[in-house]
Design brief:
The chain is α/β, with parallel strands linked by helices. Helix 5 links the parallel strand 5 and strand 6. Helices cover 43% and strands 18% of the residues.
Length: 536
């Protein structure tokens, strides 16, 4: 069952056995949860493995009914959930609704209603072998137990999407949330419990990095990890020792390319939202902006004006930008900005910690930088904060070269009124998703795949490709003409050897006409094999 949220423990708890969640906007305690040890994690995986058998035996309709009941409960508690997400992550409550709850409400209904169609058995075209009475089918079966290690930047949307996909595929789930936002995951577990999800099908194990490591060691049947490249490597290495397949979403350094014919009012609004939403703490945030030199001055002026107009405050009040999720992340942002300035970058807006947002909160001003280049960390490493560095380019080739000059490849965006050029440039960019005249939000479209290339990770979530990560394909091959023994079976005679050479030259072309030319030799081989069988 899910861990219960407790604001005040009934009995004293050893400090090492619990986690305290703090509001990053105020520093106030939000609540406490247990820090699960390795033995408890192993027990959770064992319970999930036992519970999965009955859950996986249910129909898609029965599993979908539970997900849709959970969806109704989310709608009933919309404001309460948004407030909890806001208090744990620091983002504005309105943004929690827009970027976490709305997309997942759509995701829940989509997978509840469409998973059966997306996972129905598929007949495979096996070419000329079909003329020999053969058929092949792929069926999709649950993996078993799916382990999910989720991040703090979208504490509701990221794990919920993966939980729903895993459940609809017939798996059970063990979810380990970030130690910075455990209470949101606890609430997620409570929602599914109230919706009637059987005990053990969704286990929530709260804790720190050691709890996540214990989940890997407990050997679920697949691991879904979202986080940093460094931690993702450690997860992959540990999983490889046990041959556990993984899906890794490891962040990005996403470029935005603005061409000279772009709609500048729309492009500048998009750049500001794409860079500063969630305080820039999205793996698909606009972290590099490349603007054609003809329009760079006007584009930058508009961006600076809009950035300075943004309202920044604690997540519980009306504002555009909230707090950073942790002091460690705030320090990373400060280091990147300071290093860029030392190397010659110019601060056009923001540039440091926000004042007037509370003495104990972790706030960084929305910051616009010019005069940047690829020698700077702010253009190479994932900043994960409200910083928008702007460079110029001369032509399409240079824009593409700059966009691809990164170890990351999650998303990118191209801005132009010429949709043909937009598609052409999009095909040249090394990223899992490239948007034309859009930024950031495609994680919110449940129907489309999500994932990257290069150091942005492995595998996909969302859409049919994401759902296929949650199942094991099983191939079933049937011979409907078993009485006709295969011509390639023993024994090998001179006639058989001659036929095999003809198979190589004609049958293997895939041409029906070429195969008909050797049908007399195949019939002779059938008679030869039948005669030998009768003598035996």
């Amino acid at each position: 069952m899910a861990t219960r949220l407790t604001q005040t423990p009934e009995a004293p708890t050893e400090p090492a056995r619990e986690l305290v969640s703090y509001d990053p906007a105020t520093g106030e305690e939000v609540g406490r949860v247990p820090r699960r040890e390795a033995e408890e994690v192993a027990e959770a995986v064992a319970r999930a493995r036992t519970a999965q058998k009955a859950w996986g035996a249910l129909s898609f309709r029965e599993r979908g009914a539970v997900v849709l009941r959970a969806r109704s409960l989310v709608l009933e508690a919309l404001d309460e959930l948004a407030e909890l997400v806001s208090r744990e992550s620091g983002k504005p409550a309105a943004e929690a609704v827009a970027m976490e709850l709305v997309p997942t409400l759509d995701l829940m209904q989509f997978f509840a209603r469409k998973s059966e169609r997306m996972l129905r058995p598929e007949k495979i075209d096996i070419g000329l072998y079909g003329l020999l009475g053969r058929t092949s089918t792929v069926e999709y079966r649950p993996l078993g137990v799916v382990g999910i290690i989720s991040p703090w930047n979208f504490p509701w949307a990221i794990p919920l999407g993966e939980v729903v996909m895993a459940l609809m595929a017939g798996n059970s789930v063990v979810l380990k949330p970030s130690e910075l936002t455990p209470l949101v995951a606890v609430k997620l577990g409570e929602v599914f419990e109230r919706a009637g999800l059987p005990a053990g099908v969704l286990e929530i194990v709260t804790g720190d990095g050691s709890t996540g490591a214990a989940l890997v060691e407990a050997a679920p049947d697949k691991l879904m990890f979202t986080g940093s490249v460094a931690t993702g490597r450690r997860v992959a290495e540990a999983a490889a020792r046990r041959l556990i397949p993984v899906v890794l979403e490891l962040g990005g350094k996403d470029p935005m390319l603005v061409f000279e014919d772009a709609d500048l009012p729309a492009a500048t609004e998009a750049a500001v939202w794409g860079a500063f939403a969630n305080s820039g703490q999205a793996c698909a945030s606009v972290e590099r902006c490349y603007v054609h030199e003809r329009v760079a001055e006007e584009f930058t002026r508009r961006v600076v004006e809009k950035a300075r107009a943004l309202r920044q405050a604690g997540g519980g009040v009306s504002c555009d930008i909230g707090a950073m999720s942790s002091e460690r992340q705030l320090l990373t942002v400060e280091e990147h900005v300071a290093e860029a300035v030392e190397r010659g970058a110019r601060v056009l807006a923001g540039g440091g910690r926000a004042v007037g947002c509370g003495e104990r909160g972790w706030f960084h001003e929305p910051t616009v930088l010019a005069g940047v280049d690829h020698s700077m960390a702010v253009m190479r490493e994932e900043t994960f904060g409200p910083v928008l560095p702007i460079m110029t380019f001369r032509d399409e080739d240079e824009a593409v070269r700059l966009a691809n000059d990164s170890p990351f490849g999650l998303t990118a965006s191209v801005w132009t009124r010429d949709i043909g050029r937009g598609r052409r440039v999009a095909r040249r960019i090394e990223a899992g998703t490239v948007m034309v005249n859009e930024v950031l939000y495609t994680h919110g479209i449940a129907q489309t795949p999500w994932g990257g290339v290069k150091q942005s990770g492995l595998g996909r979530t969302h859409g049919r490709l994401g759902l296929l990560e949650m199942v094991a394909p099983h191939h079933i091959h049937v011979n409907r003409l078993a009485r006709l023994q295969d011509v390639w079976w023993f024994s090998y005679t001179p006639g058989a050897a001659s036929l095999f050479r003809s198979l190589a030259r004609r049958f293997a072309t895939g041409s029906l006409l070429q195969t008909l030319l050797i049908s007399p030799a195949m019939l002779r081989r059938y008679r030869e094999r039948k005669g030998r069988g009768a003598k035996r």
